Amino acid sequence: MEFKFSNKVEPLKPSAIREIFKSLTNPNVISFAAGNPSPLSFPVEKLQVLANQIFEESPAASLQYGITEGYMPLRRQVEERLRSKFNTGRDFDDTIITSGGQQGIDLVAKVLCNEGDTVVCETPSFIGALNAFRSHGAVLKGLDVGEDGINPDELEAILKTDKRVKLIYLIPTFQNPAGITMSLEKRKAVLDLAKKYQVPILEDNPYGELRFSGENIPTIKSMDDEGIVVYSGSFSKVLSAGMRIGFLCGHSELIGKVAVVKQTNDVHTNQFFQMLCSKFIDTYGLDEHIKGICDLYRENCRTMISEMEKNFPDKVKFTRPDGGLFLWCTMPDGTDMKKLIADFVANDIAVVPGSTFMPDLNRMCYSFRMNYSMPTKQQIVKGVEIMGNVLKNY
Amino acid sequence: MEFKFSNKVEPLKPSAIREIFKSLTNPNVISFAAGNPSPLSFPVEKLQVLANQIFEESPAASLQYGITEGYMPLRRQVEERLRSKFNTGRDFDDTIITSGGQQGIDLVAKVLCNEGDTVVCETPSFIGALNAFRSHGAVLKGLDVGEDGINPDELEAILKTDKRVKLIYLIPTFQNPAGITMSLEKRKAVLDLAKKYQVPILEDNPYGELRFSGENIPTIKSMDDEGIVVYSGSFSKVLSAGMRIGFLCGHSELIGKVAVVKQTNDVHTNQFFQMLCSKFIDTYGLDEHIKGICDLYRENCRTMISEMEKNFPDKVKFTRPDGGLFLWCTMPDGTDMKKLIADFVANDIAVVPGSTFMPDLNRMCYSFRMNYSMPTKQQIVKGVEIMGNVLKNY
Questions:
Q1: A42 and which of B48, B63, B273, B383 could share a cystine (Cβ 3.0–4.6 Å)?
Q2: How far A305 CA lies from chain B's nearest CA (Å)?
Q3: Fold adopted by B16-41+288-391
Q4: Sheet holding A352-353, edge to edge
């Protein structure tokens, strides 16, 4: 049998990151390639106690079909937390529970984009989102994130000329992979442009709560007075990644359509874990738990940066995140990146090559992504030292 | 903000069944409308014990990201069971764990269908699949299932003339909603036609193991010697529907592409429940447990049929399933179905109107679907009696 795949999925390749993840079975490798939260961030004992309560209190409901929009108490908790803590969400907004942040991104793209439509995104950007857009046949146009987010003038230049832009995709806070955060000024400018040209923004914020230094910056959604921003959140980085629970908060008309499409996609998200998530919030709240994760990542990030300052040649530039899981190292233009990554691998070091995160697959990239949530402090110290020795030859 | 949705999702309406499900909060209603397995089919105590073991033995792995293709031991168990018990799956086949059977159907459609392509399916058919196909812009062509499956001549007539057929979607065993089973002869004929015209078959078999009478009939996939059939299975009806775990078994080339697209959809299926499912199979096997479910459904189905024979006027025809969850009642042509369904509702009886299951939305349908897995025996007796009284006026 020879299969002929649909035009939109035919060119899709597996995400390099997931492939790297699969091959990371060699215990000698120090991996800075992961996108995983630290396993120390999973409140295992508490989840176990609450899981037992669910098995005893609501065995039938937790194992039975649920409604597509999500377990109602969890939806209400998410809405309440977004509003009270982040001033995010208004009366015209609605919330739907998704099977991880990834599904929210995928469904928004499916609902808004015909094949050949344009999605404006950041360069670099989250590969999972880029591939979701590609899988719907969208054309990606990337804008460089720089130090504090995309340039609004460049955004307007696209919006003015390309009438097929259906979505602006942004990760304004602790951007993956660049580790930078968009300034308040730019957030306002981008929102104004979205309104002027009536193009929805998808604000992806899986890391927003993981701030370990600096001042909080309001979400774009918090300034959205007409429902043009759809906000994607996730419990992956604050409770458990493997449970696949995220959410969208957006205009009820959009969320209603997303629900209809989610119904055809997976009917609903794992019911037991939605209840478990809800019970956790009810019993313990999230704030204290998230504070612990921030403490851990602050420590790891500071260690990584100070070791990099000690060991890396000056010509290697890198971002200094205020939160999240990643930082972004950039080599001088013209560096042989293929050779560099191979040299790292030969020295049992894994990082993710920056080319993975390019909306434009032909764009040269002299950067690589480093993760500090997964490795131990010892691994960071040792790994960065090894990398420093490799980098001396470049 | 006024949203403009993509062409493929714009006309999509929420599935009537999920809407009915949402409104079934009135405790006086006797519902034959569900598609749910009986809560008695959930092995709650066993799952609880095993869940505790997972929390203790593999807390990090069960709450962390997993690989897209699924938890490896579960994939191997699924393959092993399909091969040894159903002679299904060959060396060129591969298996992927999906977030319920629904996701498998959705991903296969996405991978194979461009907008405007044709999917051949049964009339009536599973609304979740029909809406998944519609959400990809596919054109549905339905063939009447009759008493023992679609007519192969009618299938060939379409395959001969319509060069855009990309998929043949069938539920050969205990069809939802009709409750019929395709004969072995027709299975062979349909497979031959698929091979002749090189059009893949999606064999959806979520109910196949729930046989409570009659002789087992080989799956179409078991006769597939070239990888043209992709087989969809699910744990929803045999372990837990709310956990959302299903699987696809098909040619490795197709499954490889499905995996790439699943990665963009939800990264992977809930890891904890994949491990729980695997542990259940490992510890208890599925056969004994499924036997118990079959005993329950046999009893319920027989009760429903004997009560219908007693209470329904002769002009109401209905199918007599050998397994699964549903039977299908058909009124004489010209019956005012809207009035009938409303009369049932006024008498606190819920069924699903047959029009819901039509691939062709303009097709008249004088049938309705009855579910016997959810109601108790008492509810079946009482509900069918009430329905009999309503039906006397038609």
A1: B63
A2: 26
A3: Aspartate Aminotransferase, domain 1 (3.90.1150)
A4: A317-318, A326-330, A367-371, A352-353
Query: Nearest CB to B264: which of A44, A135, A266?
Result: A135
- Among B134, B226, B270, the residue with its CB nearest the CB of A273 is B270
Nearest CA in chain B to A50: B52
Inter-chain residue contact B266 with A103, CB threshold 8 Å: yes
Rounded-to-integer distance, Cα A145 and Cα A180, Å: 8
Which residues in chain A are contacts of B103 at CB distance < 8 A?
A: 265-266
Say which residues have a Cβ less than 8 Å from residue A63's Cβ, sequence separation at least 6.
Answer: A271, A272, B39, B42, B44, B47, B240, B241, B242, B243
Contacts of B206 in chain A (CB under 8 A): none
Q: Do A264 and B13 touch (CB under 8 A)?
A: no
Residues in chain A: 394
Q: What pLDDT, in 10s, does the model give residues B178-197?
A: 999 999 999 999 999 999 99
For the stretch A53-80, pLDDT in tens is: 999 999 999 999 999 999 999 999 999 9
- Nearest CB among B12, B251, B263 relative to A1 is that of B251
Residue A138 DSSP one-character state? P
Q: Is A180 helix (H, G, I), strand (E, B) or coil?
A: coil
Q: Which of B8, B62, B67 lies at the smallest CB-CB distance from A22?
A: B67
Q: What SS3 class is residue B392?
A: coil
Contact A243 B271 (CB under 8 A): yes
| Nearest one of B184, B217, B182 to B86, comparing CA atoms | B217
With a CB cutoff of 8 Å and minimum separation 6, the contacts of A232 are A98, A101, A104, A105, A108, A202, A203, A204, A205, A206, A246, A247, A248
**Phi–psi pair at A319, nearest 5 degrees:** -80, 155
Contact A39 B48 (CB under 8 A): no
Q: Given an 8 Å threshold on Cβ–Cβ distance, is B244 in contact with A228?
A: no
Return the residue of A nearest to B64 by Cα: A242
**B243/A271 Cβ within 8 A:** yes
Least CA distance to A23: which residue of chain B? Answer: B67
Q: Indicate the CATH number for domain B64-284.
A: 3.40.640.10
Query: Residue A264: which of B64, B131, B268 has the nearest Cβ?
Result: B131
Chain B closest-CA separation from residue A266 CA (Å): 5
The residue ranges of every structural domain in chain A are 16-43+288-391, 45-284
Query: Domain A45-284 adopts which CATH fold?
Result: Aspartate Aminotransferase; domain 2 (3.40.640)
Q: Exposure string (b/e) for A103-130, b if CB count within 10 Å is 16 or more? A: bbbbbbbbbbbbbebbbbbbbbbbbbbb
pLDDT per residue rounded down to tens, chain A (394 residues): 889 999 999 999 876 666 666 556 678 899 999 889 999 999 999 999 999 999 999 999 999 999 999 999 999 999 999 999 999 999 999 999 999 999 999 999 999 999 999 999 999 999 999 999 999 999 999 999 999 999 999 999 999 999 999 999 999 999 999 999 999 999 999 999 999 999 999 999 999 999 999 999 999 999 999 999 999 999 999 999 999 999 999 999 999 999 999 999 999 999 999 999 999 999 999 999 999 999 999 999 999 999 999 999 999 999 999 999 999 999 999 999 999 999 999 999 999 999 999 999 999 999 999 999 999 999 999 999 999 999 999 9
> Which of A13, A254, A263 comes nearest B18 by C-beta?
A263
Which residues are paired to B248 by β-bridges? B96, B232
Contacts of B42 in chain A (CB under 8 A): 59-60, 63-64
pLDDT tens digits, B339-368: 999 999 999 999 999 999 999 999 999 999
Which residues have a Cβ under 8 Å from the Cβ of A23 and sit 6 or more positions away?
none
3-class secondary structure, B240? coil
CA distance B242 to chain A (A): 4
CATH code of the domain occupying A16-43+288-391 = 3.90.1150.10
